[in-house]
Structure formats: C-alpha cells, structure tokens
Predict the structure.
Amino acid sequence: MRLRKQELGDRNLVGSRVELVRKQKGMKQKELLAQLQVNGVDMNASGLSKLEGQIRFVTDVELVALADILEVSVDYLLGREK
C-alpha cells in the first residue's frame, strides 16, 4: 500500500469518504475505475488518485456514479450524513 505523498487538498468534499468506503469494501482503485467506466464515467488512475486526495474537482455525474458503485448516498459522500 502506498502512502499519499501530497497533503490533502480542498477541491472537493467527497475524496476522503470515497477512499474510506472503497478501502472498507476491500476494493482497489483499479476495480473502482473499472466500475466507473461501466457506469459511463471515463477516469484514469491519476484522476481517481487526485479525487481521493481532494486535489481535483468532482462532477455531479462522477458523484452519482461513485455513490451508486460504493452503495452509499450522495449525502454521505458529501458529509451530510454519518
């Protein structure tokens, strides 16, 4: 497991929760990327890493797809529910 080299950014609210849920489910980034592509979201490994590191913005389409894939609500990813 690699450790993040950069500090967390402030470009999105969901990155840390995406990473947390992904790891809780035992899902690797490659698996999440494959699921995103199946759901019509074209993202590469660098983009997902930056999303999780909160150093890139997240589109509404990506947000909905991530919530569906990770089986959590959009509100959970946004930190609006626990």
